[in-house]
Known about the structure:
Number of strands of chain B: 0
CATH architecture of the largest domain in chain A: Orthogonal Bundle
Order of helices and strands of chain B: HHHHHHHHHHHHH
Number of helices of chain B: 13
Oligomer: heterodimer
Largest sheet of chain B: none
Distance between the termini of chain A: 23 Å
Shape of chain B: globular
Largest interface: A-B, 30 and 28 residues
Number of domains of chain A: 2
Distance between the termini of chain B: 41 Å
CATH class of the largest domain in chain A: Mainly Alpha
Mean pLDDT of chain A: 89
Low-confidence stretches of chain A: none
Number of strands of chain A: 17
Radius of gyration of chain A: 24 Å
Low-confidence stretches of chain B: none
Shape of chain A: globular
CATH superfamily of the largest domain in chain A: Cytochrome-c3 Hydrogenase, chain B
Amino acid sequence: MSLDAPRIDDPADELRARLGAGVVAEQATGEPFPVLWIAREAWVEAHRALREMERPFTLMADLWGTDETARHHRPGLPPSGVTVTSHLVSPARNADIRLKLACDGAAPRAPSLTPVYPGADWYERETFDMLGVQFEGHPLLRRIYMPNDWQGHPLRKNHHARATEKPPYRMTPESFAATEEANTLDPARLGLPTHRDGVELMVLNMGPHHPSTHGVFRILLGLDGEEIVWAYPDLGYHHRGAEKMAERQTWHGFIPYCDRIDYLGGVTHELPYLMAVESLCGIEVPERAQCIRVMLCEIFRITSHLLFYGTLAQDAGVMSPIFYMFVDRERAYDVIQAITGGRMHPAFLRIGGVAMDLPTGWDGLVRDFLDWMPRRLDDYEGMVMRSEMFRARTKGVALADAETCLKWSMTGPSLRAAGLPWDIRKERPYSGYETYEFDVVTAEAGDIYARTRVRVDEMRESLRIIRQCVDRMPGGPVKADHPRAFPPPRAQTLEDIETLIHHFVGTAWGPRVPVGEATGQIESARGLAQYSIVSDDGGHSYRTRIRTPSFANLQAIPEIAPGLTVADLVMHIASLDFVMSDVDK
Amino acid sequence: MSAAFTLILSVWLIAALLVAAGVFTWVERRGLGFLQERLGPNRVGPFGFFQWIADTVKLLFKADEVPPDGDALTFRLAPALAATPVLVGFAVVAFAPGWAISALDIGVIFILAMLALTVYAMVLGAWASRNRYAMLGGLRAAAQMLSYEAFFGLSLMGVVMLAGSMSLGQIVAAQEGLWFVVQQPLGAALFTIAGIAAAHRLPFDLQESEQDLVAGFMTEYSGMGFALFFLGEYLAILLVSALAVTLFFGGWLGPWLPAPVWFGLKVGALALAFVWIRAILPRPRYDQLVAFAWKWALPLALANLLVTGAVVVLGGSA
């Protein structure tokens, strides 16, 4: 990752000046942003300073914990049992900063950042759930993914990673009843009102099995008639523990899991993971491979946006477009299939490049798709975007301005629909995005219509990028000629013993990645996807933190939903374009 | 007509209508498939034509579950209320000169009344389900019925004035020279909108609106209860189409072909228009729907009535 924009005034210096001894240490990393260890007393103050300084850090991009108790290589770092890390972004500066807080390993506690960054709410709940960090001052610290009666915290190193490490699970009537009891959501216990103006509210349980929650998402609604008075999202039905799996899989073996983080994104999520790994390994990815990566990511952006477009239209009651769009998606998958051999989850990118070279005739396929799509998008314009009834349903509904978006850590098309042209592909170009001509699509209104508009126009921009990929596709290798690129080339394995050993060891135990910390950021179809990895030397990741855009994008629902009707909420949910696997990981 | 003959005719008509509704489900699914670049049911029989029979048999054998907290008696009665009034409404439809089970003088009003009764099925079914989604659907059904019934009747009063009768036979006879759709375009448009609402079809299917209410008032229904609601909906489409043909499109009138064939063709064409509308239109929000009915449709229907009345009176006196 490269942050090319020059840093005018250094926020790290400003923090040091303001906090003095509150800044414990600056960690040396290969990252393009400062990583500071903050003293416990200064933790909230440091964030407040960054939030309020000139050209502030308005976006809390991520907050997570790391269990340091089993880590061997941490030279020069302050002692810590569990480290709480926050990653802040300033769109105005186009700069990041990362703050770390050392906590006790046995009973980690940290001050809550929710008074400064409301968007820290769910992240702190997640950190509590996964690592047991008690956040003091958090409004309602409860588990977010795991059942309430879960024993232990999954991302602690002493927590089992597979069911076979535990005695067989037995369900007795008592344990079943206890689980039911522990996991019932009672609005009163959540501090939600039961009455408004003397009228008792009807509690409507929407999901996790509801046709319009786009996956196993659950919202509890308090209704007065059809008007929503409060909404309480409940997550975790799609939780698979991807971050824990990353600690068990080899660096290479985790790639297919990335496809399944955002299951509509195909190879998209492999990219930030591999960017982080490649940055630790010091691998320079060859141009042809980069171009293939960009092309595939943009094709997947189109298929993802098409599904968004169709389902949103369908949620407004327009029945047909989704079927046309599935025809288009099928065309895109024909291309993907020919290039990668897979469809939704191709697992095609590799450490240092891509799995194989493009097949003969690939450019014809892509060009056919490029010629096909624009006409279809014109048709949809008439069917959906220009339909008066659709406009009546979407214009001015479920407003989220840029401030609200940033407050709740929302990124991606929803943020751009509120007028902030923040796109990682432009701001921090990766994989050679700086060499492509495309525009960042924005809209002003911040309503459902604007969010749709942005995605629809982004598809045309993606088509532009894909056309440039086809036109310029550079020659050369599709994988870096680097000892850590993986899998190693096979051609020479039967010729000399060194290559054979290298190949054998790599495939048997997986590649090794040098000690260190690295981050990969990309603009996925849903927003900022960020993988922060820690290597403790070995065949496995020590910690893989996955920042998914969908998770934060859902966080604003309780603020936006009140006042909407149930039908509006369905549209609002659709307009956020989340994927539950991307929310729950 | 003797009572026995009427009875035989009624049984025959009901059977024919049930088959027609069944066939129409197939037509709709194939039609939507055609419109949406997909196949639709094409496995059972030629072009999947017997799909509706397979579906009926399947629904017959499905369990009819009553929700544990529900009101069992009302829950079971409600679906019958959905289909029966519509079938009864067909009794006054004139398929050809003299081809009606009952040539009622107030035929138009009778059909409106029967269509309006179907809302009881939804409200009662929703209430008896003890399901919150069903409840919301039932409430929407009641509000929609109140809003749309108001101008449904008014929209066709222009035709009644021009024809000088409420008997369906005489209204058709009055269109020998010119179809009323030419003289009453606004009335026809309003009637179509209200007719779609009366048949509870998209974009006026808010009571079952699957995107937000799962299946609305019939969320808890399975098996034959579900099938009867469906039957009611498809019969209502046919009845509204038949009424529209009678009022605005010259009923059985037409050259060369026998009268009932013309009637059938016209009804079929209108019913297909229902399918087409379903394929393309979004669904308005509940408050937008009600606001449209009261703020636009009702005043327009009244204005139409006033102008038509003035024309009829002035034309009569001149």
